[in-house]
Amino acid sequence: MRGKVISKLKLVFPSEEYKNQIISYKEEFILNNDSMDGTSNLISYENIDEWLEKLKRNLKEETVDKGLVPATTYLVIREDDKRLVGMIDIRHKLNDYLLNFGGHIGYSVRKTERRKGYATEMLKLSLEKCKELNIEKVLLTCNKEKIPSAKIILYNNGILENEIKNGDKITQRYWINLKF
């Protein structure tokens, strides 16, 4: 873990209350030409209200978009100043693509909040949510060249199963056993 978490974090389901922060989060990623992992495709939505409605539909098998699996997206809020520092998407189950390349959890931390230990804490909080969803084994993936991501997974008891060629990149697949 690079940095020490300087503040307690909480996971919050996105709502109107955080609309301006969500817009700011998206703008920061666009400005930095950064990948918005774990945001349930926020980058594609001009209208945040439509994105918020999509997140509600994503919660259930009956209403999730065709080809996708049910998932819960969370805002990661720093408790002391209520700032949105990251986002997490927890897929309730895996399809073929997620089994090979995506995993159960996707997440991102805004650039201005990186190297503070937040991603490690975010993954820990995500694993607690996975337990609540009765997911006994959690799959996490990362690109092989993203060494900090691999370290975060390993710190949270991830065990490397294998590596899969994904175009010109290599995807590492890690499992975390939550069954005790």
Automatic annotation (TrEMBL):
Residues 31-179 form the N-acetyltransferase domain. InterPro entries: Acyl_CoA_acyltransferase, GNAT_dom. Transmembrane segments: none annotated. PROSITE patterns: GNAT. Coiled coil: none annotated. GO terms for molecular function: acyltransferase activity, transferring groups other than amino-acyl groups. CDD domains: NAT_SF. Signal peptide: none annotated. PANTHER family: ACETYLTRANSFERASE. This is N-acetyltransferase domain-containing protein. It comes from Clostridium thermobutyricum. The lineage of its organism: Bacteria, Bacillati, Bacillota, Clostridia, Eubacteriales.
